[in-house]
Amino acid sequence: MKYVIVGTGNISHTYLQALQALPASEAVGFISRSKTTEATPGALPYWPTLAAVDRPYDAVIVTTPNGLHHHSAIEAARLGKHILVEKPLDISQAAMDAMISAAQQHHVTLAVSYQRRTNPDNQAIKALLEQNAFGRIYAADLSCRFWRDEAYYASADYRGGYAIDGGGVFMQQASHNIDNYVWLFGLPESLQGELDTFAHQIEAEDHGAVVLRYANGMIGTLVASTCARPGYPPRLEVSSEKGTFTLLNDCISEWYIDGIDNPASSVPPAPDGGASTPNVSDSSRHEAIITDFEQAINQGTTPLADGSDARRATELILRIYHCRAREV
Questions:
Q1: Gap between the Cα atoms of 272 and 286, Å rounded
Q2: 0.85 exceeded by the pTM?
Q3: Beta bridge partners of 222
Q4: Which of 106, 143, 286, 328 has its CA 20 to 30 A from that of 26?
Q5: Can you give the pLDDT at residue 327?
Q6: Is the CB of residue 242 less than 8 Å from the CB of residue 250?
Q7: Domains recognised in the chain with CATH numbers
Q8: Is 219 helix (H, G, I), strand (E, B) or coil?
């Protein structure tokens, strides 16, 4: 498939790298209102809008700031182009509804790059949960203790604000991990939490802790931070009727489950995984999500993280922002 990448920020380089690694995929250019040809990643052509693109393409990859995703996605749908959106889908219920509706109306595929779902260990845990192999799940505790310096937030006016970024660490840095959590366990029945801003000069939170209560009785916790210098790999600890296991940066690191062999793959955890920097040097998981996206389109199936399913991560984050210290 041929792609136009909307946006030329840091993450667009990762998508370009991923497309270059896939022999049947190709980036034909970028949408940018500010870049020159020389400054465009890969020195590919650029256009100010999708309507101005003058060469054939099949799909767009949206890499603009969070709160702008719906603009490009809806425009692409109206042009009959498939849409892969960098996480999150968007930052409001209304924007997400409009994106999903536009994709359905124009019969195009809408997916989100929640590429942690492609990790073999996450997929193994998902399959076991669907089989009820662990029995009753008692607790699922997710820790996203990351670090971002002040220079990161100062690099763009919108960073760490609500209008464009959609919030702080929960909407931005921990969004991938929260999506994986919701993918595994679903949405809670109720929640309560505390958020605050400690180490950075930003509008939104840079640290928070939330307790989740599920209809089946499970108690979950989410801790997300960009104050935890130097930054630590995300960690998910699960306690169940059959025992306990731990995922460290999406790879099984501890397994004490009765009667079930450890399904850990031989793939070691990535050394950083976004814990201390926004830069993504390894594009392999983006390659996997693009491959899944193309297979879904070609086979008429649902992608791994389609728009309707991927929106649940934003739904949970918005509930967290509205709860603060009261139950909702």
A1: 16
A2: yes
A3: 142, 210
A4: 106
A5: 44
A6: no
A7: 2-113 (3.40.50.720), 116-276 (3.30.360.10)
A8: strand
